[in-house]
Amino acid sequence: MTASKENLAVLARFRQDFAIIADWVKLGSKVLDLGCGDGSLLHFLQGSLEVRGYGVEKDDANWLACMGTGINVIQMDLEAGLSGFEAQSFDTVILSQTLQAMHHTEGIVQEMLRVGHEAIVTFPNFGYWRHRMQIISGQMPVSENLPYQWYDTPNVHLCTINDFERFCAEHNIRIEERRVLTDGEPISVMPNLMGSLAMYRLQRGDMKQAY
Predict the structure, then answer these.
(1) What CATH number should be reported for the domain holding residue 97?
(2) For the whole model, what pTM was predicted?
(3) Most CB contacts within 10 A, which of 52, 74, 101, 186?
C-alpha cells in the first residue's frame, strides 16, 4: 500500500501522537516498536508508510492481537534487554508511552540507540499542571495518559519533561526534535507545565539540541 496523506489526516483526528510519529518515520524504513501493545501503531505505519515493521510485546493478549492482524511480533520482556538485535539493524526504534513502566530506564534507552539509527520516545509528562494539582490535593494523579490508580499502576519511573531532557544531556543523547501535546493539541508555551504528553526523536551525539 502506498503512503497516503488521507490516511495520515484521518488518523491525526484521533491519535495525534501517531500522526507525529508517522511524520518522523521515513517511507519504507525498518521500524522496531517496543512494547507495541495490540500493534495498532505498527499497523498504521505499515499501511501508510510501507515500513518493514517488527514489534516486541510481553502481554499474551496483545501478542495474540498482533498475530491476528499480521504484525511481525516477538514475545519477550523488554527488561531482559535487546541483545538479540544487531547494532544499527533498524532505522527507527519506538518506545511509545512505555518508558514510565520500565525498571531499567537507562538501559532500554541506550539499547534503543544501539539497535536503531534513531529512537522515538513518548511518555506522559508528570509535570503537567493537572497532575500537580492532584498531588497538591493529596492524591496520586489519574488522567487520560495516566489512567491507573496508585495500587494497580504498571508505572514505576514517572518523569517530567525537564527530568528527561536532563537525562539526555547526561547520557550524550541528542534531541533532534520534540513535540508536546495536551488533548492532541500542540503546546509551545511552558511545556513542562502545560503539556500532558511528551514526544522526542533522539540520536546519539553531542549536546547541541536541534528542536
Answers:
(1) 3.40.50.150
(2) 0.90
(3) 101
